[in-house]
Amino acid sequence: MHKNSRFHKIQTWAGLILLVGAGYYFYSQLLPDWQPKLEEFWSTSGQNASRPLMLLSFAFAWLGYYFAPLPWQKILEALKIPRIDRGELRRNWYITQMGSYMPGKLWMVLGRLTFLRVNGTSTFKGVTALVLENIYMLVALGLLALVALPFLGSDLPPAVTAALWISAGLAILMLFAPGLQKIFARRLARKFDVDLEELPHISHRDQFKFIAAHILSWSLRSLALYVWFRGFGVPASTPPYAMVAVCLLAAPASWLIALVMVFIPGGIGVRESIRGLFLAPFVVGGMAVATTIALAQRAIVMLVEILFALQAVVYQFLCKHFPVKMNHLNQLSHLSWSAMKGWMCRHGLSSPPHPINVTFSVTGNCQSRCKTCFIWKENDHGDASSDLDLPTIERLFRSIGWTYFFNVSGGEPFLRKDLAEIVRLACRHLRPAVVHIPTNALMPEQIEEITRKILEVIHEEAPGTVLTIKPSFDGIGEQHDEIRGVPGNFEKLLDTLERLKALRNKYEYLHVGVGTVVSKFNQNSLEAIIAYAGTLGVNTYINEVAEEREEFFNLGSGITPDEDSYRKIMLTFKENVRASMKSMKLLSRITTAMRLVYYDLAADILKEHRQVIPCYAGILNVHVNSDGGVWPCAVLAYNGQMGRVNIDSEFLEIWNSKEAAKIRKNIKAGECACPLANQAYSNILMDPQSLLKTIWIAING
User: Fold this and answer.
1) What's the average model confidence in pLDDT over 428-440?
2) Cα(683)–Cα(672) distance, rounded to whole angstroms?
3) pTM for this prediction
């Protein structure tokens, strides 16, 4: 540690001294010698200078650096590194990029490795990612060189042209010489004492993504260099594309040469000299003027880098001081991105996005003996051997990444005494806007205790995240007990609600609701149930259709009400909800309006037995069973299992697998149809007509 600390101090001060020394040398020695040539250039070309072109150069540089973190992101995905929020990854890239200036490149590398370690990535994989980034950078530069070299003309010295052809050939060779990559991998493996099997196979498709992302970024930065020289009044070349070709070479080639200068902060001076050498034949005044213009462009590039890094720092500052508002803004941003990518995925234009709704059955155990669900017959209470443990759950959540709605399911979730820790992992890695937990309300004291712990966890990990607890309410008094199969359940329901409402008075983001499963057992009592729900003092009352699901082991039970009965029931419920909407805030009104649209949608599905609007199960929604099974939804369940999360498999592997793609194709073809409420809300969000109807109802009440 002492040696490393001393080394870091030396590097920090060495970087500062070199940077100051380089600036002093330029202004005291080079600039006076170059002054006559600069004045000659400006007297002949200054009248051709163009501010719009300089602004365009800035725009190209900004775009180039906007896409610069993309190869890094794609490489980390290919290495199956636990999913890291895309925004966090980009912010770290920009902040550590500034470390290449002060104290130096090694600091930039350490910053990225540390970030990956904090997010659960081994040092071995982190170093491998850095090596691969530079390997595919070389390949991308080689391809750019092969494109540009035939258009160079005869202005460059023959020795430089020959060196460029050789360099391009060697760079391309790295793509077709996997033995070189294996040598790197073996040396890294010995260095970190790990098994090479830890590294996943990188497909040709992934390699194409790495190279294409590098080419996109560097092409934009090269265009920025070209437009900058034109903006300074440098005339177009003959042949016309020669100068463009030189810039396509000069920008990445100068970066490559500066890369080996570990102790020169940012490669300042080295890059500009190389660019000056390349562009000197096109500029009156030669090397001196070309290098000076390149230095001026480097100042613009540094400004772009500083702006990106500053944006990242300001964002972190706002998250620290305004966590609730920033949490909400993040959620809306992620939601919009996932919705757009979800549409593209359904039409075969993209890989699946972060699911906006993650349902996780934390246990299959349940004390209830419901007439609508037979999970209790399949899972002996007290046997939790198949439930995922906390380390596996953390791996699962890391791999999923972000979600908007985290729905805890069961069995009975509160049977897991580590439920608060599961929510902690969800807040840390999924960062949901809403955490929703249903309960059978059979353990009032335990539910109160665990809910209090969960609220404290949310306050620590994700301020502003809403927690909703929804006890089941299927009837009044004995009817509820009969349907739920446990005598005394209704009294415990009332006790649980009083305890939760007392907690609600202390915690702003706790919402208490009740929900009714409408089945043939209570469809004739729903008016009385709705009226009674209005006296309970809860935030929300919702209901959904009892379904025959593989998940509930109730296929063939005949519990679902017919379409006519359900539609008549829903008319009563909708009028009750509409009457209460006018006093709601806008966000609550939108949520309630979405439920009203759902009730009509559910009735239409029951009548027509088809997908009335397109279904996004397995794209925007995912259900993870207590045994690790990954389902598109709770209705398809075991029959639609995409795979199973365990010690040998990650969620992302399953989510992007051929089996998952096959299931999505079947869903898109309309081979299933159901009124599942959890899924329907995502479908409404993605269906323009249903979404507009929702907004109209919300505005008009």
Assistant:
1) 92
2) 14
3) 0.77
